[in-house]
Amino acid sequence: MAEPTARDAAETPNTAPVDKAEASTEEAAIAAIEAPVERGEPILQVRNLVKHFPLTLGIVIKRQIGAVKAVDGISFDLYQGETLGIVGESGCGKSTVAKLLMNLERATAGEVFYKGQDITKLSGRALKAVRRNIQMVFQDPYTSLNPRMTVGDIVGEPFEIHPEVAPKSDRRRKVQELLEVVGLNPEHINRYPHQFSGGQRQRIGIARGLALNPEIIICDEPVSALDVSVQAQVINLMERLQDEFNLSYIFIAHDLSIVRHISDRVGVMYLGKMAEIGTDEQIYEHPTHPYTQALLSAVPVPDPEAREHRERIILTGDVPSPANPPSGCRFRTRCWKAEDKCAEEVPLLAIPERFKGSDSPAAHESACHFAEEKDVVGAA
Amino acid sequence: MTIIEDAVPAPRGAGEDQTPLLEVRNLHVEFHTREGVAKAVNGVNYTVRPGETLAVLGESGSGKSVTAQAIMGILDMPPARIPQGEILFRGQDMLKMSGEERRKLRGAEIAMIFQDALSSLNPVLTVGYQLGEMFRVHRGMSRKQAKAKAIELMDRVKIPAAAARVNDYPHQFSGGMRQRIMIAMALALEPDLIIADEPTTALDVTVQAQVMDLLAELKNEFNMGLILITHDLGVVADVADKIAVMYAGRIVETAPVRELYKSPAHPYTRGLLDSIPRLDQKGQELYAIKGLPPNLLRIPDGCAFNPRCPKAQDVCRTDTPKLAQLTGDEGRELVGRGSACHFWKETLNG
């Protein structure tokens, strides 16, 4: 069992601000939540976040026989106005992170500070205020919209829960404005989801996410269900909206090319842990973690000639089960560099010793004992 | 060996001048629905030779999968109908064959790999049983022999500890392993042609690379023809010899793989290539093809792409362009290149 320990705490690059005196009252918490954040300041700080799903045996008398360690101690910051991409293969815990940030799942341990307030501990009005400011866009536009509701009702539903944002008389106009913002015809307000194509449905989902003027939008695979030509339209729309409404995005996806396109910083997850995090240039052009290097080298590039100049690293085997992750470094079972040390010691997410103090782009946080730089993308 | 193979002997071994393994001629497929006739495939032509990989590229609704299903003979008819066209396998038109004859080809000569391995495998039967079924039904082997064959196949697609896992059920395998089992099943009877419909779309990139490598390796080992159906321009770049790009049920461009990426000759292909973000470059705003793919019930007149095309002229709204042979300097034919655009010359030259 890898419980969050002092060692995990050491992963945390900088300590989160907790103002206990102010957080003591709900009013103060709400005031803090409503306060604006300067561009470039951290708006969301995640510290040692853990989510274990219990595995139980028995029907009447249940006993816990283990846990799926979906997220096992990750820390990162999201700055105001930026896009943080989170990439990883299926089962690495990236979608669980999204749910934890929304407080849709209760964290097993760890903290998520939104403007200094720990949302994993909030409840009642303060939690409601946080949720207004953090919205989500889901992967599948076919199942995330209620087929029996009109577009107007879907996009207007957030106003029912947060009536202070738009008075009842004003809602229809507001919804039409939102539809226009995302590039849909405002006259289609009375249509049902099945009357729209996949790309249009994702626009409806985005309009719903924008309705409450949130500060953060968490996008969980927002374009992976869409065709290539439509994907580009939705990505462009999201970038335009970010500038227009000053949004911060957490962009979760498995498509590394799209993540690079949209993100300012990128975090690479493997089996519930953050393997490497840095700016898009640091991660894509100067990766130091072997998993990142393998992941990048495996991405098919739509250019047969560039392809030949790239080194490919083909990993053997599959991702181990998160219910029973390997000891030490979780990637060691598939890593070509693994040594005894990797089985014994969990590598910390920190700037590797050999790059410390250097201003090379390789000097970014990487959780590997043997971190070294390698260009696998073949960037010019 | 089946009757068909004896009747039409085809030489094994690579070479461009061999008789084609598969030839699709002017294939049309339509679906009769309550709202009208949906024209899914509107005159598709392509050929596949032994040892050759043809990639069919297109978005959802372009007709790429329907064409494959027509070749396999697994279209539900009705609602589907094939009003005209020929599908020649070693020169024999499969559309004119009886059900019995086609069944003999399916699996033994032409096999298919589906996208979603979990829903293509029977969850209540062991993988060994499902793999062995091929040998029992087609080759009349005993259960014991069939199981031994199943283990051999699982070894061949590099499933670790095959003998121990032959009695496992599909849910006990990971996604990549399940797709390997699908590949093993397709390979079982050593077919000459494999149709892979989005074989790696449901897989993670690291596993995707493993599976594509395996597929390419086996294809070379058996000198099979491979039709790779995909929407992913990246996957295609790796393995295909030639590419056919489909849009609204028609092939709009064909080219050897390198040339398609270097100099696309159809505005749709060009738009697709420009609209994908690149891993090795931090791009600016993405180019987006405006609008949506057409409704197959109401395909636009003229060129189906004209409402979305930046180069569309009046002629594009009235005349349907044919897939024309491209020519280079001094009228020299560009081998294997075709484009169904009135203005392919302008597109080719940027």
What are the key terms here?
heterodimer; A: 380 residues; alpha/beta; 2 domains; 4-stranded antiparallel β-sheet; 32% helix; B: 350 residues; Rossmann fold; 8-stranded mixed β-sheet; 5-stranded antiparallel β-sheet; 34% helix; globular
Q: Between the first and last Cα atoms of chain B, what is the distance in angstroms?
A: 51 Å
CATH topology of the largest domain in chain B: Rossmann fold
CATH class of the largest domain in chain B: Alpha Beta
Q: Give the CATH superfamily of the largest domain in chain A.
A: P-loop containing nucleotide triphosphate hydrolases
Q: Count the strands of chain B?
A: 13
Oligomer, anyone? heterodimer
Q: What is the strand arrangement across the widest sheet of chain A?
A: 6-7-8-3-9-10-11
The computed structural class of chain B is alpha/beta
Low-confidence runs of at least 5 consecutive residues of chain A: 1-16
Low-confidence stretches of chain B: 1-16
Largest interface: A-B, 49 and 48 residues
Helices and strands of chain A: which structural class?
Answer: alpha/beta
In the CATH hierarchy, what is the superfamily of the largest domain in chain B?
Answer: P-loop containing nucleotide triphosphate hydrolases
Basic shape of chain A: globular
Instruction: Give me the CATH fold name of the largest domain in chain A.
Output: Rossmann fold
Give the % helix of chain A: 25-40%
Which H/E pattern describes the elements of chain B? HEEEHEEEHEHHHHHEHEHEEHHHEEH
Q: Quick one: CATH class of the largest domain in chain A?
A: Alpha Beta
